[in-house]
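Postdoc handover notes: sequence design on the structure in folder B. Input tokens:
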């Protein structure tokens, strides 16, 4: 592991449109060896295993105890059953703390109920001693939702259709990291993100929109952030590094998105890929 106190690892940069090489939304913020996971899209367990194979010991199963959900779209939550069960079966003994919008309690209870028979098979008839899965669920509102010796985490309400949705701002001893989640542009988010060290932000390619049906164009403008618009925003708030994730391209390319952002933004920019690490 690097000597840097804070790292951001992209565990999944994909979207509901499944793309080779990209799993769905999940990010790890690691501070002093403790991981804080944001979102739980498909493939998170595979990416965690791959990260560990690359030497990222902070992502060991017993340490996977803190999870933050931005909203309930399936591409951000579909791997919750695996995240609840697999790390527990592989050594997580502490309660899994889950922070998310209203409805998180019902979702987690429902998952544990559905998978009860399989969990019991591990618990009572497996080859190793296990204690029952423990969870601590907090349904959040705007403001500071978590704090420990490593980090203060603030939830910021964002706009993503009918969902109650949040971005997260991490303040650590050496960095300020902001993760947008899925959102259309929100002034409060960008006020909170001014001059941050790392801004991890979703994006869609604006030049592809005229090629799509009008209902698609209307939808994306309401719930996501376009590349030209994001370039203007980033130029105003000046993050030390802008990291793109959840990139919606359709038939366009990485270069199209980057070029559109560069129409306005001159700062440091990274087109995120799964397992990229930023410090």
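Designed sequence:
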């Amino acid at each position: 592991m690097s000597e840097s106190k804070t790292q951001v690892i992209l565990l999944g940069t994909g979207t509901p449109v499944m793309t080779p090489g990209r799993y769905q939304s999940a990010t790890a913020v690691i501070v002093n060896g403790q991981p804080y996971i944001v979102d739980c899209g498909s493939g998170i367990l595979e990416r965690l295993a791959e990260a560990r194979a690359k030497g990222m010991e902070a992502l060991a199963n017993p340490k996977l105890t803190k999870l933050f959900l931005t909203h309930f779209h399936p591409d951000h939550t579909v791997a919750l059953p695996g995240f609840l069960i697999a790390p527990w079966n592989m050594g997580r003994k502490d309660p899994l703390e889950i922070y998310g919008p209203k409805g998180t309690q019902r979702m987690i209870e429902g998952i544990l109920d559905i998978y009860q028979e399989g969990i019991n098979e591990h618990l009572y008839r497996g080859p190793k001693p296990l204690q029952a899965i423990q969870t601590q669920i907090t349904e959040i509102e705007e403001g500071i939702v978590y704090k420990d010796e490593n980090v203060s985490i603030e939830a910021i309400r964002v706009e993503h259709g009918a969902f109650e949705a949040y971005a997260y701002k991490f303040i650590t001893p050496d960095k300020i990291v902001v993760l947008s989640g899925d959102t259309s542009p929100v002034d409060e988010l960008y006020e909170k993100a001014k001059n941050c060290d790392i801004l991890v932000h979703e994006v869609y390619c604006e030049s592809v929109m005229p090629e799509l049906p009008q209902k698609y164009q209307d939808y994306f403008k309401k719930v996501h952030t376009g590349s030209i618009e994001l370039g203007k925003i980033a130029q105003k708030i000046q993050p030390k590094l802008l990291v793109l994730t959840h990139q919606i391209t359709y038939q366009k390319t990485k270069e199209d998105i980057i070029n559109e952002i560069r129409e306005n933004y001159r700062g440091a920019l990274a087109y995120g890929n799964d397992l990229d690490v930023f410090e």
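Context for whoever picks this up: The mean pLDDT is 96. Don't rerun without checking with the PI first.
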